[in-house]
Design brief:
This protein has 432 residues and is mainly alpha-helical. The chain has helices spanning 2-16, 21-35, 41-51, 58-71, 74-86, 92-105, 111-128, 133-144, 154-163, 167-173, 175-195, 206-215, 217-232, 237-255, 264-294, 297-306, 312-326, 332-349, 354-366, 376-385, 389-412, 415-424. It starts with a helix and ends in an 8-residue tail after the last helix.
Length: 432
């Protein structure tokens, strides 16, 4: 018990002292390892083993693809498609925001990248059109979290890699909840527009709609290539990410010609920096995750929770509530690596399917992207709009309830999330 308190308590103390999370993870783990009399070399070994995974190579590929989308004109074309399709609906720019985020998430898998790219265009546009500024930031930030749910998802790649769960099944399982949450956000946008008396904009001619869709066909095919390749067994999630990058390069350099070869070192450099920071957190979180397993903390917590409830629904709700709270101070990536041993121990005891548990975990942790003080998507949106996070968070709460409602529904009715992956990837459910 003393070692557990030292590990967790030391980490929380360092966080309160505003030590960067990666260093807080490493320092508290190192002190605990020395106290246990283990070799300090264990730190380096666990950091290396934490990132020594072929599946994790998908992360830099998707991050690089996101950069190509922004700099190569792909994002602009997705925005144009969204605008022509849903712009004329009452609350049009809000609907464009959600639909564009869903399409962006189908390619990049990154919530923060979505907020920065979509938000930089739509937040000023919505502000100019007279939309309530806190609501504008809230819908931008919340719709951006769909990039972590709708495949391909970087968080699902990490969960599958560290939890030995089928990444393809997680990808396919994220489709239904992602689409339902997006539809829910659009319904709320319509309600806000009607409540505030906002009139719809005129519909665009069919020729303009057709032109916008035609120009965006190549990037819109990327998700189909990624998912189709994975489902058919042609390539793995990592190989799919590499293929998507090659196609993205072709689009940016030769089709749309908004990037030149001389621009690539700059784009690659930004992608490397964006990749290095979360991967350092993954490496240091791997040490703590190993210590949690070594100290048998996972089983102790599982025993405690089982003393409260044996219901699989109750266990999932407790895990979800815990992760929603944890997500306010930790990034989703860090939270997955640290708490995965506990989550899977509880899932095994309660006979919860690994894919089902992974989807609930991902949905729960996406809430942390819009809840202070971590709330990276919310903070990016607030920075663009130049308003305080407190004002924006009040507007986030009703939109956040849509995701929480999806978590409850998905926990009560597992087949809502699992029927699609069971249909197209039955081998991922063999033996369980």
């Amino acid at each position: 018990m003393g070692d557990t308190i030292l590990l967790i308590g030391g980490f929380l103390l360092l966080i309160l002292l505003r030590v960067p999370i990666a260093f807080a993870l490493a320092a508290s783990s190192l002190v605990t390892i020395l106290t246990l009399g283990l070799s300090p070399v264990t730190v380096a070994n666990q950091m290396f083993s934490g990132i020594n995974s072929f599946s994790l190579l998908a992360v830099p590929f998707f991050l690089f693809l996101g950069k190509l989308m922004n700099d190569g004109g792909i994002t602009d074309r997705l925005l144009k498609v969204a605008d022509t399709l849903v712009g004329p609906i009452r609350g049009g720019l809000g609907h464009v925001n959600v639909l564009a985020s869903m399409m962006f998430g189908c390619i990049s898998g990154s919530g923060a990248a979505d907020t920065a790219s979509i938000g930089s265009v739509l937040i000023p546009a919505m502000k100019k059109a007279g939309y309530d500024l806190p609501y504008t930031v809230a819908i931008t930030a919340c719709s951006s979290t769909l990039g972590m749910v709708i495949p391909p998802s970087i968080l699902m790649v990490l969960y599958g890699a560290f939890g030995n769960v089928s990444i393809g099944a997680l990808f396919i399982g994220g489709l239904v909840p992602g689409i339902l949450i997006g539809v829910g956000q659009m319904a709320y946008t319509y309600y806000v527009a009607v409540k505030n008396g906002m009139e719809p904009t005129p519909r665009q001619p069919v020729s303009e709609v057709a032109k916008a869709v035609y120009n965006a066909i190549p990037p819109l095919l990327l998700p189909a290539i990624i998912l189709g390749g994975i489902m058919s067994g042609v390539f793995t999630a990592t190989e799919a990410a590499a293929v998507a990058v090659v196609l993205g390069l072709i689009l940016a350099l030769f089709v749309y010609r908004e990037l030149s070869i001389r621009d690539l070192p700059y784009v690659l450099g930004r992608a490397v920096v964006d990749y290095s920071l979360p991967m350092f957190c993954v490496a240091t979180a791997g040490i703590m995750g190993w210590l949690i397993a070594y100290l048998n903390i996972a089983n102790d917590i599982a025993t405690f929770i089982l003393s409260i409830t044996h219901s699989s629904f109750g266990i999932m709700m407790m895990i979800s509530g815990f992760l929603i709270i944890v997500g306010t101070v930790l990034s989703p990536v860090t939270a997955v690596i640290i708490f995965l041993p506990i989550i899977q121990a509880l899932g095994d005891v309660a006979h919860i399917n690994d894919v089902h548990m992974g989807l609930i975990v991902v949905l729960s942790l996406t809430t942390g992207l819009v809840t202070p003080p971590y709330g990276i998507c919310l903070l990016i949106g607030c920075q663009i709009a130049e308003i305080s996070a407190t004002r924006a968070f009040v507007a986030v709460i009703p939109i956040l309830c849509i995701t929480i409602g999806m978590i409850v529904l998905g926990s009560l009715f597992p087949d809502l999330m699992l029927f699609l992956p069971k249909l197209v990837m039955p081998e991922a459910f063999a033996g369980g």
